[in-house]
Amino acid sequence: MNLVWNEYTLSFIEGGLLVRKRNSLLYFNKRPVFVTIKTVSAISVFYDNVYSEITESEDKVIAKGILKVPAGSEFSFLDVYETVKEGFKVSRKVKVVKAAGELGFSSKISFHLTESGSVYDYNCFAPGVWYKQNEFAPDYSFGKDLEAEYFLRTETAYALPMFAMQHTCSGETAALSRWAADMTKRSQDIMRSENNVDRNCTSGAIGMSRPADKTLNYLYYGFPVRTKSPTKSKGLSLDYVYPGCDGQLPGRNRYDGLDITDRIYSFQRINHPVEEGFEQNYAVALNLGCYTDFQAMMRDTWRITYNRLRDNLFQVDNEQHFHNCMKILTKYTGKYGDSYGLPFACQLPDMDISSVSFQFGFVGQQPAIGYQLLRYGDKENIPEASFKGRNVIDFWVNTAMTESGLPHMCYNPNIKGFEPYPHYIRMLADGVEGILDAYLYLHKKGEEQHSWLEFCRKTADWLVKIQNDDGSFYRAYNTDGSIHMDSKSNTPSPIRFLVQFYLLSGKEKYKAAAVKAGEWSYENAYRNLEYRGGTCDNSDIQDKEAGIYALFGFLSLYDLTGEPIWLEGAVGAADYTETWTYAWSFPVETPLPKHPFNQYSISGQSIITIGGGADVYMAACSYTYYRLYLITKDEHYLDFAEFIHKNTRQSSDVDGSIGYCMPGLGHESGNFTTQMLRSQYHWLPWCTYVEVDPSSRLYDTFGSYEIAGAQKLGMEECRKRNRIYDTLV
After folding, report:
1. What's this model's pTM, rounded to 2 decimal places?
2. What letter does residue 117 receive in the DSSP assignment?
3. 131 and 547 Cβ atoms separated by less than 8 Å
4. 286 pLDDT above the threshold of 70
5. 357-384 per-position pLDDT tens digit
6. At a CB cut-off of 8 Å and minimum separation 6, what does 657 contact?
7. What single string gives the DSSP state of each residue in 500-528?
């Protein structure tokens, strides 16, 4: 019996299954009836079997099997295979027919790979968690140690619940993903441990494994307990495990008194109860394809899963939300001694100020907020906002510049001076762009702020002077201009500023510097997928914000030159960056009585650094993705732009119903992979800024706070207005 999708044939032979492309065998599972048993001594043992009955009905293949384990428990399997638009769907029901005392069980849908049994021969993709061979992940990250046996992660950790494997030579790719965003709440009164049972857990784990012929359980301090397995290993496989697990995860020895020198790992398993009548019901998609490179595979597999699982659009009035956010920025901008700015952090729900320190960019975004206040006050006739915005800009212009042309980054009014924070190129770009935006706004109205312009000129000249011969910049510098961090990963960050300052000044040296930085970024960030180090409070690891700034930089070069190479880079950066966004949703509980996630979903939040927590920073990109849609006419970018323009608002009190002291407030970040929110529960200025900035740009360019409103202008008018550099100066 066969099911056919494009060039791929799924065949059922001798109780197992084979996947061929034409006459070549690519994937197989000869014994697909599989359970992991949690024994009475709490170790995990594997058993498998063949299907005992396979029938065909209405273009579907129905496969049944029984698995009896030595201790006496018995499990029935009912698997339904069918061809769908983008590949194959597998629906599974596992029922405990007989229970004989085992403590728990899980099941697995898997496909063994024939082209190679070595992990090193595959590039993998798990959104926000694994890219290629995870060479830019931290040492403790999932997938960093490719010598491990198990690479399995609970699907709630993925921006979309999918894992793809691409053979590096042939390009053949297999991707497994959860079929539907139908997850329910897990038991929050059960803490995750080495090997626990949760009857309510409906999340799976997706990844790959190549187990030895031994069982594997880690004790709490990292010692591996291994016994001979009754089931022989079949080699490397792509797996969906249900319920989920996390393992093997590299770790660090938390018990320094123990004399353990081996690498420490953990393997946390979740089981369902071995209880007569208990049932598992779940479904996965198997997507197959062949791609010439990793980026094409990443883009295609992401979009296939996105189209199936993308959450509904959040209903929000973005015009009202913009005004609420500007009221927040207006209220909390104030004078602290001789300086103007916003507090570094305030605790929710009542905005209890917990720290006052001003950052030039990144999480502080002080000059950029100053520009937004100046603009808002002028357009809405709110003198307080305009006054505070001007004072914020004046403070930085009058205080932060050094003789070298490298501005200071972090001011603390309590010490009346600057903190010893490294001069990150990314933070520099944020701040100086804000000052340039403020200058240009007033310049168009006939008002000249010469000191603001001179500040930008000095910074631009410093960037030109210290740029490396290969076009790169180092990640961070010391106040005297010496190198603080010699990674070049932040090179895309100042490109947009240099382009815009060239357009203002007309001096070719700034354009040349921007192009040189673009060339380095094209070869390294884009072609090598080396998007890392974008967040100034993390190590130089793969992250989302490095992708965002590459997108900004490439698009600005395309706006300037119209050269296809820069559009290619922008599209590549956009395709990468969106894969960090939680496009699907699942239930999350919070321990906080006043929090948006008590009412709204987590979709629209985005993973910060590889395998880390999530925040609202993708909100900063909605205007840019919409602009990219107008250039490329790719409808997906329109959909994604609207998605992040709306669903990112779900971490905010958009209408005052949450109970925060002001509508529009939102929390900074959190981790919800366990379906229980862990968060510092505080607000930082950037949280509001990244929601304000794209909305103000959208309004200034297209006359609407909503993307749907911009669309009413018609494509021809929108594309005309999208030439934003025609009216920059």
Report:
1. 0.96
2. S
3. no
4. yes
5. 999 999 999 999 999 999 999 999 999 9
6. 599
7. HHHHHH--HHHHHHHHHHHHHHIIIIITT
